[in-house]
Each structure stands twice: as structure tokens, then as C-alpha cells.
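In this supplementary section we document a worked example of the pipeline. Step one takes a protein sequence of length 249 as its only input; no multiple sequence alignment statistics are reported here. Step two produces a three-dimensional model, which step three serialises into C-alpha cells for compact storage. The input and output of this example are shown verbatim.
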Amino acid sequence: MNHKFFLFLFLVVLIGCNNKKEISFEALHISTEKEINKPLVIVNVPKAIKDTKVAAAINQVIKDKIIALLIFDDDIAVDNIDDAISSLNEEFLSVKEKIPGDATRWEVTINGEVVYETDKIITIDLETYEFTGGAHGYESSILLNFDVVKGELIPNEELFASKEAFYNLAETKFRTQEKIPAEGPINDTGFMFEEEVFMLPINIGYTKDGLRLLYNTYEVGSYADGQIEVLLPYTEVNQMLAIKGEEKE
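The serialised model returned by step three reads:
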């Protein structure tokens, strides 16, 4: 073997090692806890710190989700978190002025975590809580899947190599878990799927244990039903996925 071959082999190994950890994270923390007469905003989310395409995509998408949760008036154009918080403050003060006796403090809490990471895909889970008056607040989860190679957010429709097969499996698993007869209407036990037709949830994400299907409160059920999730092991769904999950040994 010559020196050129050894140099080539060294470069291949070096590039492979670099690609295994293309991105690192630090914590982004925002809190208005000490501010008086303003909504309580607490944000704890991962922030990608490497200068890569996927890092930029992750940070931009998370920022956009935070802004969307903070903006009370959809007609207001905001492109940074500070302005979004100011917008929420203004709306809160406006409501307090109209209803002086209502001293209930509004709240928006967003906690994020990297729940799955390989050299091909990164999944981030944003757990949110919003309270802007009323009988109770609203909790929800946002699952975000990022293609590490392409450096972009993966739309749900691009998660599947065989969507029809996945859809059929998901419905079967949902019916079994929720004790809905295979041949009966999907809403037989009180669910509220539109037109009595099963649908995949808005939030689908990779986890260490399998693919997570998450229906947020009100998505297919009542407030009392809360969140409903179905976990599909990779041994059952990998053949249907565009990017395979890591199966447990």
C-alpha cells in the first residue's frame, strides 16, 4: 500500500467522524418572571451552536414557533422574540384596562428537548403551555424532525416511503389501543375525527423507542380526553419510513 492510499483512508475516517456529530446544542433561556404586571413568559429550548445548514434551520424553526405562540394578534408582523413578547404585553395590558377586576396573569411556557439524534435525523419536542384567561390553560406538544443531510425541516408527508401502508398500520394500532372495533366507525367510542375518517396527527416524531404519533387536546377528542399518543416500534414501521429509525437490539 502506498502513502496516497493511507492519506485517503485517513480523510475518509476523519470526515466520517466529523459527520457523526455535525451539530451541538446549548440552552436558550428567556424569562419575564421578575417583571411586574406583565405576562409570565418562560422559554427553555435547545439552540444549535455550530455553523451548519441544519443548525440554522433548527434555530429558525424554533424561533418561528416561539414567536407564533407569543403573538396574540395574528395580524401583527413580528420577526424576533423580544417584539413578540412586547406584543403579548400590550395585548395583556389592553385586556386589563378593559376588565380592571381581572388580575389573572397570562402565561406562555415553552420547554424544548432534543429527543432523538442520529447522523441522519434530529427530532426536537417543544412542550408548551398557554394561558390567556378563561377556565383553564392549554397544553400542547410540537414535534419537529430535521434532515441532518439536507439541513431542513421534514414535512410530515415526506416522512414516509409508503404512506398508505403506514396510514393503515397507524389506524389499526389506534383502534386496538383505544378499543375501537376494526369494522366499526372510528368515532364509535367518542372520538371526533372529521367525517368519521381516521387521520394521522399533525405531530409525528422519532423517539428512542419508536415513531410517536401525538394528537394534541381537541385534535380528535374533547378537553377531557387530553393528549392521545400511539408509539410504533421501528421494527414495524421502518420499511415504511423514508429515514429509518434505529432499532433496539
